[in-house]
Amino acid sequence: xxxxxxxxxxxxxxxxxxxxxxxxxxxxxxxxxxxxxxxxxxxxxxxxxxxxxxxxxxxxxxxxxxxxxxxxxxxxxxxxxxxxxxxxxxxxxxxxxxxxxxxxxxxxxxxxxxx
Amino acid sequence: xxxxxxxxxxxxxxxxxxxxxxxxxxxxxxxxxxxxxxxxxxxxxxxxxxxxxxxxxxxxxxxxxxxxxxxxxxxxxxxxxxxxxxxxxxxxxxxxxxxxxxxxxxxxxxxxxxx
Lengths: 115, 115
Prior knowledge:
Low-confidence stretches of chain A: none
Number of strands of chain B: 11
Oligomer: heterodimer
Structural class of chain A: mainly beta
Mean pLDDT of chain B: 91
Largest sheet of chain A: 7 strands, mixed
Helix content of chain B: under 10%
Shape of chain A: globular
Number of strands of chain A: 11
Order of helices and strands of chain A: EEEEEEEEEEE
Radius of gyration of chain A: 13 Å
Mean pLDDT of chain A: 94
Distance between the termini of chain A: 37 Å
Number of helices of chain B: 0
Number of helices of chain A: 0
Shape of chain B: globular
Radius of gyration of chain B: 14 Å
């Protein structure tokens, strides 16, 4: 079974631009979570989607948004990019994301550099 | 909310020596705990997870972790370090937020293996 895939793997943007990242979960997985990873803040939860609905959201400004499609693929968008948005963005999928015992499987991440 | 604390942001061991990476959790209920490994420029890979079936959990690549309720710990060990073990390791706890799973990660421990 194919793993979680994320595209693109690397991105360079300038301040003020917007960016869209894509995540395809493992086949059959319906829950997709997004994380931001930076050296200073570590892994921080952005949001989680299930059946095209956002169920959980972390403490990030409204510039960070996401969506999920009917095939469970998910995208996240960051508008008006700031230098501090430079990070590795990780996507994780799980079956339903409703139970605490579920395992999240991670993609390779998208590394975003904002200049 | 549940949380995990990883003691030591950097750990160095000699090749062939014991690896011990520390993780303590705070939880008012039996937790579900995970250890993930992240190699450079990659996503997180599940090493093992604790689901209360057994206190000693064996994972991939020769790693294991022991759940100790009295010490609220879930330390990761490997009897003999290999050069390929050099990576960053994350402890995580799974919780419920708004009725759905939320995973909180520790700050990570970078393992250096010295030849």
